[in-house]
Design brief:
It comes from Vibrio quintilis. The protein is an alpha+beta fold. The chain has one domain. The protein has helices at about 10-15, 45-60, 90-95, and strands spanning about 20, 30-35, 65-70, 80-85, 100-105, 110-115, 120-125. The protein is globular. The protein starts with 8 loop residues before the first helix and ends in a 10-residue tail after the last strand.
């Protein structure tokens, strides 16, 4: 049986090449990176994205979390996101509630990209190689 991936290859490649700018350190060993910006990868006005992220922040406020910007390698495109110390299944459930196609999950320093709308997962290597800007 062939498993069909619902996220097109160009979009998956863009997700796979993202870099991260953490506003503070995460002390948790394993955590997810989730956003409420641009559900289903459909660009929304920044004001709508900010409202959505405020709703997401209310949902994750009982967990350890940190702000993180996710962007392309030059950070010409970014999405405000959150690193959240929560298990993978909870992360996927939360992301699905906000219409997201995928999340990142960090396990023992390794960065994984998990689809929310099918079963695809890729190991993207060490998170440390994807940091856009060192902590200030």
């Amino acid at each position: 049986m062939v498993i069909k991936h619902m996220i097109d290859e160009t979009l998956w490649a863009a997700y796979s090449s993202s870099c991260f700018d953490f506003k503070s350190e995460m002390s948790a060993g394993d955590f997810s990176i989730i956003t409420a910006w641009n559900p289903a990868s459909q660009q929304l006005p920044e004001s709508v994205n900010c409202v959505n992220n405020k709703r997401l922040l209310k949902m994750i406020s009982n967990y350890e979390w940190a702000s993180v910007r996710v962007g392309d390698t030059q950070f010409k495109w970014i999405e405000e996101s959150f690193a959240v110390a929560v298990d993978l299944e909870t992360s996927l459930r939360i992301a699905r509630e906000f219409g997201q196609n995928a999340i990142y999950y960090v396990r023992q320093g390794q960065l994984f990209l998990y689809a929310c709308i099918d079963v695809r997962v890729d190991n993207l290597g060490a998170l440390s190689k994807r940091i856009y800007k060192k902590l200030e």
